[in-house]
Amino acid sequence: MSKKIYEYQLAGRKITVEYGEVAKKDDEAVLVRFEETVLLSVS
Q1: Mean pLDDT highest for which of 2-11, 15-24, 25-34?
Q2: In terms of residue numbers, what domain contains 27?
Q3: What is the pLDDT at residue 29?
C-alpha cells in the first residue's frame, strides 16, 4: 500500500492524516497530527 496524506482545516487549524507506510510492520496504522499533538493508531 502506498502512503497517503490528507490535510484538513478545522477551526482555522491544520489536521493531517497519514496512512499506508506509517508503521513498517503494520499496514493498517494511521497517524493523525493536530498542531503539536500526534496520535498513532494501529490494529
Answers
A1: 2-11
A2: 4-41
A3: 84
Match 502512503 to its residue by C-alpha cell: 3
Q: Is 35 exposed, middle or buried (0-12, 13-18, 19+ CB in 10 A)?
A: exposed
Domain count, the chain: 1
What pTM was estimated for this model as a whole? 0.76
Q: Burial code of 5-25, b = ≥16 C-beta within 10 A, e = fewer?
A: eeeeeeeeeeeeebbeebeee
In the structure grid, which three cell numbers stand for residue 4, read together?
Answer: 497517503
Give dist(CA 19, CA 35) in Å, integer. 18
